[in-house]
Design brief:
286 residues; globular; 9-stranded mixed sheet; 10 helices; single chain; Arc Repressor Mutant, subunit A; alpha/beta
């Protein structure tokens, strides 16, 4: 029997809110059936529908870093365009996003890759991995990363060095993510070996998961976004402000869909959440 998805599962897959899924039903845009008064979605038909839409000229297909704000931003843009353009996004990590871009599997990659030699974000890494005439770089936003700890900071964690204390349980991000690359750089700078940190090999795949681990007490501390600390009412110890960029294939740079997207980005259509800055949103770096 074919697998059927709920409205909530479809909303998560398409990175839309449930209200927008119902709107797509009413407009006859999305494959669906009704059983016992409940809307359900045949998974195979839905995935075929997604593939067809990603092949349309107006749609955008990006991949890369996990960032909680991306969902909100892409949904706002799709709504602004009346769903004529949908941004499909795969949170595969900063480094994987660049690899996928280089192989033509995505049209753009969102990344925050810190280069310890220059102290710069993204451009040194991109110049090493991509042909300099094959891509363009535009800033999405800046965001603050730091240590997330329980309210009141019961273990008095203040610096990276405190993570090597015997009683401190850390939760790490997945290998090749921008946050993991940053963390490995920070502990190397302090002369701390991975084995000195309890929980170094306990990995999760998103900033939200880091927040959940600290909030639940499964971990005492994790490296993550100030915004996530705000969501879970955690204390935040700032370490660095990152430039979060979108790398776009040169092949589509001059297309109307990219120009429209960048125009929306530059318009700063909503206020930045805690820990974010839109001061350079839309600025072309390369």
């Amino acid at each position: 029997m074919e697998e059927l998805l709920t409205t909530k599962e479809v909303a998560r897959l398409l990175r839309l809110n449930e209200k927008k899924v119902y709107q797509l039903i009413q407009e006859g845009e999305i494959p669906h059936i009704k059983i016992g008064g409940k809307w359900l979605f045949p998974k195979n038909d839905l995935l075929k529908w997604v593939r067809e839409r990603t092949e349309r000229e107006k749609d955008l297909f990006f991949g890369g870093s996990d960032d909680p704000l991306l969902n909100k931003f892409f949904a706002a843009y799709s709504e602004f365009k009346g769903f004529e353009t949908i941004v499909f996004y795969s949170a595969i990590g900063s480094e994987a996003g660049i690899i996928f871009l280089s192989k033509g599997k995505v049209q753009g990659a969102c990344c925050h890759l810190y280069d310890p030699e220059t102290g710069e974000y993204n451009t040194p890494f991109l110049k090493r991995r991509l042909s300099t005439n094959s891509f363009r770089v535009v800033t999405l936003w800046h965001r603050r990363q730091g240590l997330l700890v329980k309210k009141g900071n019961p273990l008095s964690i203040k610096t990276i060095r405190d993570l090597a204390k015997p009683k401190v349980k850390f939760v790490n991000r997945n290998a090749h993510s921008g946050t993991r690359i940053l963390f490995d750089t920070l502990i190397k700078k302090e002369g701390i070996a991975p084995d000195e940190i309890q929980g170094y090999y306990q990995e999760v795949n998103s900033h939200i998961e880091v927040g959940i681990k600290v909030f639940s007490g499964e971990a005492d501390v994790g490296l993550g976004l100030e915004y996530v600390a705000h969501l879970f009412a955690l204390d935040f110890i700032p370490l660095i402000e990152e430039r979060f960029d979108l790398v776009i294939s040169e092949e589509i740079w001059e297309t109307k869909k990219v120009k429209d997207f960048l125009s929306f980005l530059s318009s700063k259509s909503f206020l930045p959440p805690p820990g974010y800055s839109f001061r350079e949103s839309g600025k072309i770096i390369l």
